[in-house]
Structure formats: C-alpha cells, structure tokens
Amino acid sequence: MAEKQQEGSNVEEGSSRAAGKVVCVTGASGYIASWIVKLLLDRGYTVHGTVRDTADPDKTWHLRALDGANDRLQLFNANLLEEGSFDAAIDGCECVFHAASPVFFTIKDPKAELLEAAVSGTLNVLRSCKKASVKRVVITSSMAAVTFNGKPRTPDVIVDETWFSVPELCEKHQGHLLHTLILPMDG
Ligand SMILES: NC(=O)c1ccc[n+]([C@@H]2O[C@H](COP(=O)([O-])OP(=O)(O)OC[C@H]3O[C@@H](n4cnc5c(N)ncnc54)[C@H](OP(=O)(O)O)[C@@H]3O)[C@@H](O)[C@H]2O)c1
C-alpha cells in the first residue's frame, strides 16, 4: 500500500516536471517506439512522433488511441532516406528517441535494404538534432552489435558496455545481415 502511494507520488512528480516539455520519437509506429510514446504521454510529455505515412491508419491508430494522445501527440511524416525529413518533427524538442530503423530477419541485399536507411537515416536524424540544439539523443542499437563475440553467456556473466560483436564471428555464424549491422560501428 505504502509502495503504491509512493509510486503514485513519483508519477505525479514526474508529470509536473514533464509538463510543457516536448520530445520526439522516430519510427513511432514501431514496437519499441510505440511503448516509448505511451510511457512519455503517461508521464506528461508532449510527443512528436514520426511515421512514414501519417494517413495510414494501420500504422497510427494504436498511437492515436493512447491516453493523452488527443492533446499531446502530434504525428509527422518522415523517411530515413530523405535528407532533412525529420527537421519539422525535431524542431522545438529537447530530447529525441531514435528508434526508426529497417528491421529484417531475411534479406537479399543488406547494403541496399538495411545499411542505407540505418546509417544514412541515423545521420539525417542527428543533423536535425544539431540544427534544433537538442539536449539529449537516445538511439536504439541492435542486439547484433553485442551478441556475437565468442564469450560465454552463463548466468554468472555480466554483459556490459565493453561487449561488442566481432565482425568475423557474425560473418561465420549469421551471414551478411549481422555483419553489416555492426560494420558501421567500426568505421
Ligand atoms: N524489438 C526488440 O526486441 C529489439 C531489441 C533490440 C534492438 N532493437 C532495435 O530497436 C529498433 C526498433 O525495433 P522494433 O522492434 O521497434 O522494430 P519495428 O517494430 O519494425 O519498428 C521499426 C520502425 O522503423 C520505421 N522505419 C523503417 N524504415 C524506415 C524508413 N526508411 N524511414 C522511416 N521510418 C522507418 C518503421 O516504420 P513503418 O511503420 O513506416 O514501417 C517502424 O515504425 C531497431 O533498431 C531494432 O534493431 C529492437
């Protein structure tokens, strides 16, 4: 009971700190981003969400149905492959959660289908952040960046920020997809 009351007062405290603050979530229709949008709205933030097509109900209905969305969620069209596409959504935001990314598990041409949007798209988003003097940017990485390094993953092992996948192991075990996912981190 006491814990519940404490939780309630923490949420209220968070909401009052968030009031009037504007944050952007890219790829808002996606799995991870939808949850980020929900949690931000619950905490009282105003959210600029980007989707590729704001007129597509299949991609947006679950966002528009969220508590607080009527008053504090604005959706913008933005595509990772278009330079400057994120400017409008990011303008006026103090924080950006960048979760838009192509996510494929079977792929013919990783360079064209995945790398172009993931790498150039992230740079596009970062350029928009710079223009808008955004204070904080959070980028979702891929588990492929840390999983394949040949180290044991038993319950006693702690996976921390020193873990990175080894490109040769990705190539060997998972083929091109995972290899290309981590290559940009080396370059
Ligand atoms: N889900 C997980 O458990 C997990 C775990 C570790 C890391 N991650 C990483 O987290 C990120 C998001 O993953 P997710 O599972 O939420 O994927 P998801 O549900 O497929 O969402 C990806 C989002 O990116 C958008 N997108 C794709 N290509 C785009 C483009 N060219 N321009 C603009 N937007 C584009 C999609 O928009 P549309 O709706 O328009 O297609 C979609 O909203 C990825 O980088 C993924 O690697 C996910």
Automatic annotation (TrEMBL):
InterPro entries: Epimerase_deHydtase, NAD(P)-bd_dom_sf, NAD(P)_dehydrat-like. The lineage of its organism: Eukaryota, Viridiplantae, Streptophyta, Embryophyta, Tracheophyta. GO terms for molecular function: oxidoreductase activity, acting on the CH-OH group of donors, NAD or NADP as acceptor. This is NAD-dependent epimerase/dehydratase domain-containing protein. Keywords: Oxidoreductase. Gene3D superfamilies: NAD(P)-binding Rossmann-like Domain. It comes from the Eukaryota. It comes from Aegilops tauschii subsp. strangulata. Pfam families: Epimerase. SUPFAM superfamilies: NAD(P)-binding Rossmann-fold domains. Residues 23-145 form the NAD-dependent epimerase/dehydratase domain.
